[in-house]
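User: Can you help me understand a structure? I only have the sequence.
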Amino acid sequence: MVLTPETALPFFWTNSNQRQNSSFYQAILEKKVPAIVGGFALKEGGYTNSLFSMDGEGNIIGQYDKVNLVPLGEFIPFSEILGKFIRKLSPLEATLIHGQPGQQFQTTFGKVTVGICYDSAFAEHFRRQTAKGGEFLITASNDAYYSSTILAQHHALDVMRAIENHRWTIRATNTGYSGFIDPHGRTQWISNQNIYQLYADTIYRDYTQTFYVRWGDWLMPVLLIAGITLLLFKNE
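Assistant: Let's start by predicting it. Here is the structure, written out as tokens:
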């Protein structure tokens, strides 16, 4: 299966004419290799930043719409109230539509836990999908605007998501760092920055439900309260 970065093919992939005219799409048909493609989808009132799962026959069998959009970068917050003023601060001519949190992403290899770029900062976003059967984890990003420090931080976020969900993780970015991460958070391969690279490896589906996947964030406040209680008793 081939994974592309976020919006790697920046047109409306749901438009059959645009899809048919894509050399990438024609390669899917020729080679009969499943692919996950970054593009856009038309929706009522706007469009979404999306990933499309294609089978080897070129059929769309899954679609994920980015849930956590970047304020001012991808959408204008409080646009109903402050729209005219905020639009002067944003380069966007139009805004994206948020995807729904309850999405499930289907591929030829089963359900996948998936995120696009800024989604990586939201652990609960991945936990929900894994709890519903995500067997491995993929993220696709456009990090073209960021320094190597930010790229490393973004990679580190996905390392945390891999550990929390105990899932093999694939990262695809346009400028770095793409990578493969095992369920223990060990990076098996990482790309260079701003160098065109292709990489192939084997990952494994996993059905483990970690404590975090099963119980969520409630464990942290419980441990915090327990720690403070033990500290108070120790000081008495």
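Now, to help you interpret it: The two ends are 60 Å apart (CA to CA). The mean pLDDT is 89. Let me know which part you'd like to focus on.
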